[in-house]
Design brief:
Helix 1 links the parallel strand 1 and strand 2. The chain is globular. The protein is α/β, with parallel strands linked by helices and 195 residues long. Helix 1 runs parallel beside helix 7. 37% of the residues lie in helices and 20% in strands. The termini are close together. It has one domain: Rossmann fold, CATH 3.40.50.360.
Amino acid sequence: MRVLVVYCHPVPESFCAAIRETAVEVLTGRGWEVRLLDLYAENFNPVMSGDERRSYNERAPDDPALQPHFEHLKWAQAILFIYPTWWYGLPAMLKGWFDRVWATDIAFQLPAGKGRIKSLMTHVTKVGVITTCGAPTWWSVVVGQPGRKTILRGMRALCATRCRTFFLAHYLMDSSTPRSRTAFLVKVQRTLERF
């Protein structure tokens, strides 16, 4: 299985980095091919230009910096997202990655007239999300978990029809303890062993 790990956190010593290390270790230990995409480390530009937006419905962006990202998407059979939940959603860097990389002629094709878009991501059969969240579980649910829905409903709709998914969140991250973080890493390990 070929898995793309999309990691998004600006602080190298963050708990998300520990999650990333655990995830990569488990997946490589299972014999999976792993590509790690660290958006902050590579200084990914999440900002879509005016020209890029004007041609968005017609063709894939021609920015050479996006070509490796397009290749990663075409290569992946599974995608694992690791990021902090900020204001109940995705960090701007990750949202911009979706905006610019899951593009026309890469992730989907638009019909000439009315009709449904055609997915180009049906080779992706597994999508997982591991995140941290400062809010408690109940409040995240009340707010509607927009980050979870963006990936596991919106983006997943472009993947294989029977694409398997999972969502793990360490809630109350701002008041977490070494014990709660250790327990969460065990949960990450067990989930990825079954993924």
